[in-house]
């Protein structure tokens, strides 16, 4: 399947939505409300979501949609709903044919509210699911900086299509970025870019217009022969990415230039076309889970431009777990040639990022990943204490034991339990996948007595 139709609709839908968002962007009052997590939402978020979901429903009626906003606030606040409807009903592309492809004008305010609420899919590993962020970087949007309208198509958990509209980025792909790009922006002449990608077919940009799609051209990440000269991007908000850890990683890489801070997936887009090189989003909270709509489109655009996108462990982003990247922590994006070097620098910050100490370690997947991959502070950990940490994870996870139906078993009985008995538990399954050869694990006891330990060790650690 080529996905050319999906990209065309995604690009047109994003382009139409940016007409609305820029109209709101240029207003002093943006109709801001707060969600339960205190993050701001503007009338632009609601309006753009309505327009994009309408386009998806018109062209792909059976697809699911994971979107950031929902309409309950608007149903309670009639004045706000009416304000958004007055905005939405007048938004259209100048090219009549393109506008009709997206479904034309919504018939009523109630239809607008209904369409906003069609973004409630739980996501997952099966089927076609669109991940939508109508305004990514809302705080940047409010302060007059960078923001993006983002749409990605996942099929069976794999990102196939991505489209991102960045109204305040320069059209010129050769333009460099500096610290000023995150503030005091406008959509005047020379600004406004639409990025897109299809898996396996590369990434491209084209100027944003108010009508039909403009001509596109391919983009790629630039080579970085000297990593100390790389430009790295990070978020403006300290609550979204650990800026101190980002700086420590940059220092370890020998990068002396200051970071470029900008909001939204504009960071992915900037490095994809060579305006920057490295994007770091290191976790500020150990239990925080990234949302799929914040990364799906940008992840594909960078990868198709010749880059790699992973979490802080070097694992690819897994979009099959629902509405969040539950299997990943943080984001690291860079050209393929230097990704391993960047990840190596990130490894040295992992204990700090995860709040770990060398004593009194919690038994969870983060600690075990550090042990498994020999990250600091476990570079020279011997087999025996390494083995004990794995055993503690298996024996002390009460939920895992209950799921295996052995909550009342004693040590002697646990010695006879097999790894396969624990596969229904998500944490333990993730722990077990750290091993490269599951066949030996499936034939081994969960706990090891002195009689079995020597034989088991030869299998369990032969790949170290």
TrEMBL record:
InterPro entries per UniProt: DPNP (IPR006239), Inositol_monoP_metal-BS (IPR020583), Inositol_monoP_superfamily (IPR051090), Inositol_monophosphatase-like (IPR000760), Inositol_monophosphatase_CS (IPR020550)
Keywords in alphabetical order: Hydrolase, Magnesium, Metal-binding
Top EC class, one word: hydrolase
The enzyme's E.C. designation: 3.1.3.7
Keyword Magnesium set for record: yes
Highest taxon, organism lineage: Eukaryota
Pfam families xref list: Inositol_P
Chemical reaction(s) catalysed: 3'-phosphoadenylyl sulfate + H2O = adenosine 5'-phosphosulfate + phosphate; adenosine 2',5'-bisphosphate + H2O = AMP + phosphate; adenosine 3',5'-bisphosphate + H2O = AMP + phosphate
Cofactor: Mg(2+)
Keyword Cytoplasm annotated: no
Annotated coiled-coil segments of the chain: none
Family classification: Belongs to the inositol monophosphatase superfamily.
Name this polypeptide is given: 3'(2'),5'-bisphosphate nucleotidase
High-level lineage: Eukaryota, Fungi, Dikarya, Ascomycota, Pezizomycotina
């Amino acid at each position: 399947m080529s996905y050319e139709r999906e990209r065309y609709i995604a690009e047109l839908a994003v382009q139409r939505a940016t007409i609305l968002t820029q109209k709101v962007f240029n207003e002093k009052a943006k109709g801001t409300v707060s969600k339960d997590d205190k993050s701001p939402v503007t009338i632009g978020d609601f309006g753009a979501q309505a327009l994009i979901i309408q386009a998806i429903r018109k062209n792909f009626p059976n697809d699911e949609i994971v979107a950031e906003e929902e309409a309950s606030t608007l149903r309670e606040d009639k004045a706000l709903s009416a304000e958004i409807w007055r905005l939405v009903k007048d938004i259209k592309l100048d090219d009549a044919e393109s506008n009709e492809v997206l479904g034309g004008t919504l018939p009523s305010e109630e239809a607008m509210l209904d369409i906003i609420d069609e973004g409630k899919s739980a996501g997952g590993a099966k089927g076609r699911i669109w991940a939508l962020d109508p305004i990514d970087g809302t705080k940047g949007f409010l302060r007059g900086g960078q923001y993006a309208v983002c749409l990605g198509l996942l099929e069976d958990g794999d990102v196939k299509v991505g489209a991102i509209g960045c109204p305040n980025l320069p059209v010129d792909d050769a333009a460099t970025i500096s610290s000023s790009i995150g503030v005091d922006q406008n959509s005047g002449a020379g600004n406004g870019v639409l990025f897109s990608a299809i898996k396996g077919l590369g990434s491209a940009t084209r100027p944003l217009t108010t009508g039909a799609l403009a001509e596109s051209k391919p983009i790629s990440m630039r080579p970085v022969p000297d990593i100390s000269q790389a430009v790295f991007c990070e978020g403006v908000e300290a609550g979204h990415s650990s800026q101190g850890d980002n700086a420590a990683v940059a220092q370890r890489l020998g990068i002396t230039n200051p970071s470029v801070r900008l909001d939204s997936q504009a960071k992915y887009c900037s490095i994809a076309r060579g305006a920057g090189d490295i994007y770091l989003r290191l976790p500020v909270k150990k239990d925080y889970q990234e949302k799929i709509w914040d990364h799906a489109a940008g992840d594909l655009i960078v990868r198709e431009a010749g880059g790699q996108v992973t979490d802080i462990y070097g694992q690819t982003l897994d979009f099959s777990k629902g509405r969040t990247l539950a299997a990943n922590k943080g984001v690291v994006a860079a050209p393929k040639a230097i990704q391993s070097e960047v990840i190596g620098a990130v490894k040295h910050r992992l204990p700090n990022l995860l709040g770990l100490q060398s004593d009194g370690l919690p038994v969870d997947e983060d600690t075990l990943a550090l042990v498994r991959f020999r990250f600091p502070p476990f570079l020279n950990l011997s087999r025996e204490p390494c083995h004990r940490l794995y055993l503690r994870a298996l024996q002390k996870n009460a939920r895992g034991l209950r799921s295996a139906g052995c909550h009342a078993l004693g040590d002697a009985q646990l010695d006879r339990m097999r790894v396969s008995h624990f596969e229904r538990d998500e944490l333990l399954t993730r722990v077990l996948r750290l091993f490269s050869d599951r066949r030996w694990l499936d034939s081994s006891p969960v706990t090891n007595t002195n009689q079995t330990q020597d034989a088991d060790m030869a299998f369990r650690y032969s790949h170290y």
